[in-house]
């Protein structure tokens, strides 16, 4: 398969904002963002962006030995008016939200056969979510999907990942001026799956983007949400819920690049861990550029350690290049299951197992409500219950 060029043909004008937006944060990377896998050295694990990731468990996604040949079943359920179009790399929408920032994402860009563009027309207000179900059926798979949301449209999008695969994929969200997009990405893979994905959002003028990432399954899951603004007045909310079990590695690396004035962002991720060698990683980067006056941003990460043997790495970063902002802050905390809460509930006649469930559900309740899709919320709560039931048993 032919290698991709350093920038997709036709993307120079439409993608200029996003590509320029990522260049200033390249100092944290081993190489600048690029569409060409050859521009990234094979990681060895000492790089800043790879130091927490178990490279030996990526099954070749990082060094080029993962050969595509697997199967993933994709089903799209969309209301009338939404179009689904297969396109090549030369489509001007492909890559517009941002270039790959590591070798795995660049490998995905170089390896997919056809990208999929899912478009919502301007001013459309969808009463039902757009649902994209991806079910792995073994082997190595690569993908690239672009969601194009027209100006002043209102959309809820659900991405549902199940089954078994070794997968690297790039997902782009082009949010038009004044549009409102909510994305719920559920990673409920089988225990043997490996999933690395870069989510890049370009938020238009006065537009609203909300991302909810829910991660349960998989052997290794590494999700990289990134947000940049195409004009002033944009809002981004990034929420995450993860439950890391015995032997799992779940990594969420976020970047919000405030490159336009009077924009807002709010980040809140919460995770629970249990079992030997459960490992969760959360990296939260927020950059406020000199031109991004009037920015208001905050990021939060909370982790609840339920058993011995679990490990959390939580690293918030805030880089401010202008003093003319409305506000900026971050917080991170990791704690063990509090016996006082358990005792309080048990003293009121609630059995220990039920009290434990209530504490964990209360910990996640605020973020679960952000999903806004009842069947997904119910599924998440049921999954939490199942995980807790397994630990008690």
TrEMBL record:
Q: What is this protein called?
A: Fe-S cluster assembly protein SufD
Gene Ontology terms: biological process: iron-sulfur cluster assembly
> One short Pfam family name for this protein?
SUFBD_core
Reading the lineage from the top rank, the first entry is: Bacteria
Per the UniProt entry, what species is this protein from, by scientific name?
Streptomyces hainanensis
Q: Which family does it belong to?
A: Belongs to the iron-sulfur cluster assembly SufBD family.
NCBIfam families recorded for this chain? sufD
SUF system FeS cluster assembly SufBD core domain location is 136-363
């Amino acid at each position: 398969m032919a290698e991709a060029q350093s920038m997709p043909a036709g993307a120079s004008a439409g993608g200029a904002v996003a590509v320029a937006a990522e260049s200033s944060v390249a100092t944290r990377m081993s190489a600048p963002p690029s569409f060409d896998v050859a521009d990234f050295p094979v990681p060895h694990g000492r790089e800043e962006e790879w130091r927490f990731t178990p490279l030996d468990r990526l099954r070749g996604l990082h060094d080029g030995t993962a050969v595509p040949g697997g199967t993933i079943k994709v089903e799209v359920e969309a209301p009338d008016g939404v179009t689904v179009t297969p396109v090549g790399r030369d489509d001007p929408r492909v890559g517009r939200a941002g270039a790959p920032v590591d070798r795995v994402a660049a490998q995905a860009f170089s390896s997919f056969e056809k990208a999929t563009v899912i478009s919502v027309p301007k001013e459309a207000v969808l009463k039902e979510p757009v649902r994209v179900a991806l079910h792995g059926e073994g082997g190595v798979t690569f993908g690239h999907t672009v969601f194009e949301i027209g100006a002043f449209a209102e959309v809820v999008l659900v991405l549902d990942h199940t089954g078994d695969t070794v997968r690297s994929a790039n997902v782009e969200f082009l949010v038009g001026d004044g549009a409102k997009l909510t994305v719920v990405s559920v990673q409920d893979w089988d225990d043997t799956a490996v999933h690395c994905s870069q989510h890049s959002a370009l938020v238009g003028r006065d537009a609203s983007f909300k991302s909810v990432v829910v991660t349960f399954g998989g052997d290794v899951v590494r999700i990289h949400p990134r947000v940049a603004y195409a004009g002033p007045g944009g809002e981004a909310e990034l929420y995450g819920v993860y439950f890391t079990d015995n032997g799992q590695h779940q990594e969420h690396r976020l970047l919000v690049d405030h490159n336009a004035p009077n924009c807002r962002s709010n980040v809140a991720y919460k995770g629970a861990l249990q079992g030997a060698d459960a490992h969760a990683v959360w990296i939260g980067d927020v950059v406020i550029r000199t031109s991004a006056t009037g920015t208001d941003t905050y990021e939060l990460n909370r982790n609840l350690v339920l058993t011995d043997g679990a490990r959390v790495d939580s690293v918030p970063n805030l880089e401010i290049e202008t003093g003319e902002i409305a506000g900026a802050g971050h917080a991170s905390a990791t704690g063990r299951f509090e016996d006082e809460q358990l005792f309080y509930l048990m003293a009121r006649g609630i059995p220990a197992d039920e009290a434990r469930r209530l504490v964990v559900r209360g910990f996640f309740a605020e973020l679960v409500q952000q999903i806004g899709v009842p069947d997904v919320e119910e599924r998440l709560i049921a999954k939490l219950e199942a995980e807790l039931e397994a630990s008690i048993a």
